[in-house]
Amino acid sequence: MQPIRFGLVGYKFMGKAHSNALARLPMFFDTDRPIERRVLCGRDGAWAAEAAEKFGYAQVETDWRKLVARDDVDAIDITAPSNVHKEVAIAAAQAGKHIFCEKPLALTTDDAREMLDAARKAGVRHQIGFNYRFAPALVLAKKMIDEGKLGRIFHFRGSFLQDWIIDPEFPKVWRLDKSVCGSGSLGDLGAHVIDAARYLVGDIESVTGLTRTFVKERPIVERMTGLSGKAGSDAPRAPVDVDDAAAFIASFENGAVGVFEATRFSQGHKNDMRLEVNGEKGSIRFEFERMNELWYFSAEDEPGLQGWRMIQVSEGIHPYWDKWWPAGHVIGFPETFVHEFYEFAQCIAQERECAPSFEDGVKVSQIMDAAELASSRRAWVDIKEI
Ligand code: SOE
């Protein structure tokens, strides 16, 4: 069987997470086509070569245009900052390559739509990197909701809290530069919560909310180091043009009420994504930092014995678990990427639509743009307007 030959664009945090997933995927999952890490692409030849060696790619390119034009690459995996997603994805689609793209899909909904249109027109597979929905607990939550275990859904509550940019001396890294990332905590963290909300509860029709930037200017970064960066002691400052925090409420098409929060200013919270869904027959809740657990309350349990129960989602009967370890030998953040690339590889091999696709990326982007617009207008915004 012809391998799926991957070309990776960008090799920092997400490039490493994706490469780790591609390396481990064949160890645990049987894909219909083998996986090959063929080419790694980065602008700096020496660094790219070092990363290619470490991450297991056979070859290096320093120009993504050359990568996209290669006959020996089937899928382009875009992990570079958001401002390059659109150009690379459209060129990849036009060259007939399947595309995996990190979130947020693009800087604006219009750009995201152009990417979706290009991929559809070319008939290539397209997937966006909403890895959190691949946590087994969330796949189980989705199954339970679809089976009607919660009945009619009344509430979705989701937050994603971090604390890594509270220091006003923390430099203006690319995740704080609108021209590179599109938005701040909303696009970086809120996007995952919105995806989870749509995955579990359904589409949103309108929102109102607010975004806030607490630290208005920061030292200009000299050198990026992972998520962080270094700035000289007398580095000039630049205005911060993205949100530090975003909060909004939403009305779902099915009548449910949504409450959303994303921030990097919650002291003590490192990667704290929390979700709760309340329905007429029961509730579920999930905390990413305890991702092998799903909490469930059933109002159908015997009176007097009702209460929250913790389902440890780490047995062979749970989603993906038959591929991993014996019961209770828990998995973590990196495995969510293995699951999403299993989906991508099988979609390519089986010539079917991927989920989450660029279409999901566009819909999440619409909701984020609506939340920003609502904040600036101090009003409700209908998603159809975006
Ligand atoms: C940084 O805020 C970040 O790494 C995001 O970019 C990721 O999407 C999220 O998984 C964790 O936080």
Q: Helix coverage percent of residues?
A: 25-40%
Spans where pLDDT lies below 50 across 5 or more residues: none
DSSP strand tally: 19
Radius of gyration (CA) equals 21 Å
CATH superfamily of the largest domain: Dihydrodipicolinate Reductase, domain 2
Write the H/E string, N to C: EHEHEHEHEHEHEHHEEEEEEEEEEEHHE
The tally of domains stands at 2
Structural class by SSE content = alpha/beta
Task: Tell me the fraction of residues in β-strands, as a range.
Answer: 25-35%
CATH class of the largest domain: Alpha Beta
Global shape: globular
Bound molecules: alpha-L-sorbopyranose
Number of helical runs? Answer: 10
Distance between the termini: 43 Å
Largest sheet: 9 strands, mixed
What is the CATH architecture annotation of the largest domain?
2-Layer Sandwich
Spatial arrangement of strands, main beta sheet: 18-17-16-15-7-14-13-8-19
Question: Which labels suit this protein?
Answer:
alpha/beta, 386 residues, Rossmann fold, Dihydrodipicolinate Reductase, domain 2, binds alpha-L-sorbopyranose
Task: Offer a quick outline of the entry.
With 386 residues, the chain is of the alpha/beta class.
3D architecture notes:
The chain is α/β, with parallel strands linked by helices and 386 residues long. The protein is built from ten helices and 19 strands. The protein has two domains: 4-132, 3-Layer(aba) Sandwich (Rossmann fold), CATH 3.40.50; 133-331 and 364-377, Dihydrodipicolinate Reductase, domain 2. 33% of the residues lie in helices and 25% in strands. A nine-stranded mixed beta sheet has the order 18-17-16-15-7-14-13-8-19. A six-stranded parallel beta sheet has the order 3-2-1-4-5-6, with helices on both faces. The chain has a two-stranded antiparallel sheet with strand order 9-12. The longest helix is centred in the C-terminal third of the chain and has 20 residues, at 358-377. The relative contact order is 0.16. The mean pLDDT is 97.
